[in-house]
Amino acid sequence: MHRIVVIGLGMAVKPHALALRDLQARVAVAAGYSPSAERRQNFAATWGLPVSGDLDALLADRSIDTALILTPPWAHGELAKRCAASGKHVLLEKPVDVTYRDARALVEQVEATGKHLGVVFQFRFRPGALILRGLIAGKALGELISVSTSIRWWRGPEYYAQPGRGMRARDGGGVLLTQAIHTLDLMLSLAGPVDRVAAQCRTSALRSMDTEDVACAVLNFRNGAVGVVDTTTAAYPGYPERIDFAGTKGTAVLEGERLTIKIRGEPVQIVEGSLAGGSGADPMAFSHEPHRKLIEDFLDAITENREPQVSGRSALPVHSLIDAMLESSQISAPVELSGTERG
To answer: Which domains does the chain have, with CATH numbers?
Structure first.
């Protein structure tokens, strides 16, 4: 039995709380922490779980072996380091940090404590994604030729009405860091690293904010494939994220949680899954099942003393890509990447 503290009780808490409820035979929530008394009260009333306003006492509690951090990005670095230094394994809601440089430093500092660091990129645990990973690894699609990734979501006025929403000071970034990062991470985990990117990032006339809500890019993958990325939160009413893989033997399309496989000379395979999700006005309209699988794997990693499938280090490539896209747009020229050792 593990004991976990949940740090940060905002919008992201729902799927985690549902997942932890499913896993209550393996993990107990010692407390939910927020500096906001209102959020603590709402968390306790909604989930029937204990809360605390004393983070120092929670970190000093040696019976708590794991911390789940769900705070805004700017707080991740300090909190993750404090938790690891106090002897706790850390499961961190995306992003790892606001920039690749800071994310890499955080990963290295937690690794130096000997504690496990996991990152909540739950798209990797969607059933279709797990099947597709096996197909690509087994060369069922042949050699990868082309990858097309589309994240055409919608966030309405009520979303951006929250103070600071879409501003760098609050969110750390725009559509790339806040929304598209999940799908971009999944793309990279399946297709492999990118060596070169040429991008354009813009803020639409819909919003007054200092981060991008439209971003497009052309990618060169290390394995020789080429790709495109098209992402926005200005596509009303919002559409399922989609990744298309074209190989020398066939294609695979992952749309939301639905996977379609078309290999020459073989019957079409369809793995059914929800097309609903966080693409529309409600950012939390998705199943918590991938969260449960990710948390379960993290607990297994602690028990088995191995790296979690979504380790902090495995989360660095998407941060490298996002930084490169923003830089490419700023200088109006392609940017070269070197694996995860960028910056």
So the answer is: 2-121+292-309 (3.40.50.720), 124-281+317-336 (3.30.360.10)
